[in-house]
Specification:
The protein is α+β, with helices and mostly antiparallel strands. It has 14 helices and 29 strands. The strands form six sheets. It has an eight-stranded antiparallel beta barrel with strand order 14-15-16-17-18-19-20-21. Helix 5 crosses helix 8 and helix 7 runs antiparallel to helix 8. The longest helix is centred in the first third of the chain and has 37 residues.
Length: 656
């Protein structure tokens, strides 16, 4: 895109420069002839007086174009500061062209005219700078307008760098019922972005000597039996406690409308079986942050909402941030929406006492930016405490979890980031910060169906870094794709499988979701809809040895095993076969329904419907999940049941 723009600028500039230089030198020769004849040199009258300006314009435009080309090339290289290559190159080349244009015009005309041309060229340099500053805004607009149409629930997005807000805009609707457009100062539920406030509250109390991260939680919460285990406050912060996530427990939907206090919330999960030994693994759990909220109340003597307000919101000037309370009037607070049956509907009711310290805060993008600046300035906790909170926790076996205290850790094009998303009834929010580059990006939406905001936000950050994500597919024959097939071992993420199915290379864990790998270079692939790129690795002999998968989170490394797999693909489907297998199959605990639609086969459990591909007689696989179904027939050829292979083997009887 940049090189194409540069080529167009160069072409136009050369035409302008050539025409103006030709006419200019012609006039200059006429002037010299007049002087030799003893007449007064009345030069460059009328339209010709603008030729020096056109000459300067042509040279400056050429400088801008060369700067774009050089900057784009340097930006593609992997070296510190590559993100600044494009603007630096534009200014450098434009500055050089400005000086050259001055001396060229001065050589061919009077000093007064050359100064006028220099001034004009300087204006063009300023214009180039302004255009460069406008480039991110144009890109951000196109990115977010596509995701948040004007007539749908909307979003507010902000981007800042080096302490300066460079982009802030509202999209879509704040209220579908009232027809009110979104405003940048609207107040949103921020969901799990609440967790960073809870974590900082704990660290603040620790710095004051009122608790220790290594304290056992039963020191503060006597009514929460640890089932014989020692669980520290740090284990709650890092999601390594093994305490089961209460929002995933059976019956959680039954309590969404109830107002429950911290003790009542804890009673929901305190006797649930542990997921693992405390400290032995990582599993995201809202329950841990419910317990942290209760600890804050016990130690401070205040309610969680009061403590957050007194310790953070008021001192930092976050005047539009609150603990969510439906009874108080909050100017700018908006409602949330969801998509159901292809239509927007109001979000289902949720008592905001239920998310509590795990997700019950309200804020604006401006206030959240204020919060991140205060964190960076050391006005919330010490820089030493913050640094510990914003690096990945490491399990005893050496595995990084990708989570610190209240933040996920990740990267954008190799630059370390801290980030969190928040999903709560009617809302999805996302915020990320790059400490080294001082880049902040936030997107808040009042639709719980907004999708993964990590992708647009990371694209915005990459643009500000000057290292945009660029995945351009290239064709690759099926035979070449098959050479990447195999089973790969990873250090901490189990086995990964690369397999060719229906002419496409797919990547998945055993029993997991399949993701297509699309080639974009030699041994380079990307996963559509994400910012993840996969590079296959080879030894000196050119043999495949493994892969590296990099995205905005933890990097995954895989080593190929000797085990071989075969490519699979569809075989012709007889309509009689479709009719013979359609029906309901009873498994232990659920019913799988086989449906047909336009000569295609689908498997459905509840509302989850997946396409099935016939690859052998009476054998199908799910297109987007690692699951195989084998239909069982009796001696007469009638289908009576099925075997499901997905991590384990399950048997079903046909009931209809």
């Amino acid at each position: 895109m940049q090189t194409t723009s540069a080529a167009v600028i160069i072409a136009i500039s050369l035409v302008v420069f050539g025409i103006s230089y030709y006419h200019f030198t012609t006039r200059h020769r006429e002037r010299m002839a007049i002087i030799e004849n003893g007449s007064s040199p009345d030069i460059l009258k009328g339209a010709a007086s603008y030729l020096p300006l056109l000459l300067a314009l042509g040279m400056v435009c050429i400088g801008i174009a060369l700067g774009i080309v050089a900057g784009a090339w340097f930006s593609s290289l992997d070296f510190p500061g590559a993100g600044y290559a494009l603007p630096v190159a534009i200014f450098l080349f434009t500055g050089i062209s400005l000086i050259l244009s001055y001396y060229l015009v001065r050589k061919l005309t009077r000093p007064k005219t050359s100064c006028r041309a220099l001034l004009f060229a300087f204006v063009m340099l300023s214009f180039a700078s302004d255009c460069r500053c406008q480039q991110p805004a144009v890109f951000f607009d196109s990115l977010l307008t596509a995701q948040f149409p004007a007539s749908a629930p909307g979003a507010v997005a902000m981007a800042a760098k080096d302490g300066r807000i460079i982009y802030k805009k509202a999209f879509g609707m704040a209220s579908l019922e009232l027809g009110l457009p979104m405003r940048t100062d609207n107040v949103f539920r921020i969901g799990s972005n609440t967790k960073q406030f809870t974590a900082m509250a704990i660290l603040k109390l620790a710095e004051e000597g009122r608790l220790s991260l290594h304290d056992d939680i039963t020191k503060y919460i006597t009514y929460c039996p640890a089932q014989g285990h020692s669980i520290t406050i740090e284990a709650l912060l890092t999601h390594t406690s093994g305490i089961k996530n209460y929002t995933g427990l059976p019956g959680f939907n039954d309590i969404k409308r109830k107002d429950l206090g911290p003790k009542e919330l804890i009673s929901l999960f305190k006797n649930a079986p542990m997921d693992f030994e405390p400290g032995g693994d990582f599993r995201y759990s809202n329950s841990g942050y419910i317990l942290l909220g209760a600890i804050i109340e016990q130690v401070s003597g205040k309610t969680y909402g009061q403590f957050i307000n007194d310790a953070f919101f008021q001192p930092l000037g976050m005047q539009h941030s609150f603990y969510d309370d439906p009874s108080i009037i909050i100017p700018g607070r908006i409602g949330g929406y969801r998509v159901s049956g292809g239509q927007y509907k109001n979000a289902e009711f949720l008592s905001m006492s239920i998310p509590y310290a795990a997700g019950s805060l309200l804020s604006t993008v401006d206030d959240l930016y204020t919060w991140y600046r205060a964190l960076a300035d050391g006005r919330v906790v010490s820089r030493q405490s913050l640094e510990k909170a914003q690096i990945s926790f490491r399990l005893p076996g050496g595995r990084f979890t990708g989570y610190g205290y209240g933040w996920f850790t990740g990267n954008v094009q190799g630059s370390p980031s801290v980030k969190h998303d928040g999903a709560v009834n009617g809302f999805v929010t996302y915020a990320a910060y790059l400490p080294a580059e001082k880049i902040f990006v936030a997107i808040f939406s009042n639709s719980e169906s907004a999708g993964d905001l990590d992708v647009p936000a990371s694209k915005m950050i990459a643009s500000l870094l000057g290292r945009p994500y660029q995945f351009t597919p290239v064709p690759l024959p099926a035979a070449k794709l098959e050479t990447y097939q195999g089973i790969y071992n990873t250090s901490f993420d189990g086995q990964k499988i690369m397999a060719c199915q229906d002419g496409h290379l797919v990547y998945y864990s055993r029993g997991g979701v399949k993701q297509e790998l699309v080639p974009y270079g030699k041994d380079l692939f990307f996963i559509p809809g994400t910012l993840s790129g996969l590079r296959f690795e080879r030894n000196a002999k050119g043999s495949l040895t493994g892969f590296t998968l990099s995205g905005t989170g933890l990097t995954v490394h895989g080593t190929i095993t000797p085990e071989k797999i075969k490519a699979t693909g569809p075989i012709p489907v007889d309509p009689k076969f479709l009719k013979s297998v359609a029906g309901k199959y009873q498994f232990d605990g659920f019913v799988l329904e086989i449906e047909t639609d336009d000569d295609r086969l689908y498997g459905k459990v509840g509302n989850d419907r997946k396409e099935l591909i016939l690859f052998a007689p009476y054998k199908v696989y799910a297109r987007d999940t690692d699951a195989t179904l084998i239909f069982v027939t009796d001696t007469g050829g009638k289908v009576t049941g099925m075997t499901k292979i997905q991590n384990s083997v399950m048997e079903a009887v046909r009931i209809e």
